[in-house]
Amino acid sequence: MYTRVFLNKKEEEEIKQGFPWVFDNEISHIKFDSAEGVKQASLSEAVVDDGSVVEVFANAGAFLGTGVINRASKITVRMIGTEHADQIMADAQKFYDEKIQAAYDLRKLHYSIKDSYRLVYGEADFIPGLIVERYVDVNKNVYLVVQFSTLSCEVFRKEILHALRKIVKPYGIYEKSDAPSREKEGLKLRSCWDGEVRDEKIIIRENDVLIEVDLVNGQKTGYFLDQKDNRRVAGSLAQGKRVLDTFTHTGAFGLNCVKGGAKEVIAVDISPEAVELVNKNIELNKAGKKMKAVCADVFDLLKEYEKSGEKFDLIILDPPAFTKTAKNIEKAYGGYKEINLRAMRLLNQNGILVTCSCSYFFDSEHFYGMLMKAAEDSKKRVQILEKRGAGADHPVLLGYPKSEYLKCAVCRVN
Fold it and tell me: Which residues are marked as active site?
């Protein structure tokens, strides 16, 4: 018998709706095999190894699904399937082959073989903790950057890598399991090539713009693929405009604007390394006559531009997450409001603002409420032309709100 985890009363509703996590304080008791037969104990006293496959039940006994237990984490069980454990473990390789194939088939509905995209999006693709980015370089070689951030996918690492090789047939796989969250799972950090060592830096083509991606040293999994479609939309609005691209990182928003016919683009980032990369990407795209990179603190630069009377026709705000916890929402609100208020003041009449937030905790209600207050305080009238999010390679799982984190508003300011 597989170990059985029973929830407290009325704790099963979220799981039934699709939420893939069971927290430690939601567990009533555990039934497990022992030398004396089946025993029942509390979470802290049960004899069960972290990384074990377990079955999850409602308090009254209804079967909810199968997960992997990890008592080192507050998220004690991560659900991996609605099937019984023996069905999954009878052929774990087949189980993960099918999951990777389903994720791959979903992306093929929206993207061509030449496109770079997120191939597996963790819980939203029913593999908690697993991120897989698929990059295609200009020579048509396919690279995968893989991140195992939880024990629930780490224990199936062999099966997952085998499935990726079989289905995607990549030229190279780089494992970038170096997120600090792994340590909360009781896991060591790991970054290395799986198999043959390939080039660390590649050039991809996104929306017909060339971008250098550092697979090994780039932020997170190398590049922010979630904004691909939003960058294309920004570019389509840039014809003849003077553009300010803030928190630019790689210059991708700005380069999409150059491609869209922008008159001038100023791309700003506080990181000298980022600015160096932006300059490389400007050179790659022969965009030097229209685009320049500036190393500066965006908050300070927006103040300076306002003081000196600078004006733009299109401004892009794509900051990093100002909060990664619920308790810092108010502080984040102030940061988001300041940059949006100043951007609104810097825009010419009927100028376009493309403004984003990638913080899940700063949800849509906070984000659009902040925009309204920024408009009020800047004495501007703002029309929201589009409410956008991440691309189709970042599906939203019903019952798991964390899968919908990116907000992108396309606005006209007058």
Answer: 358
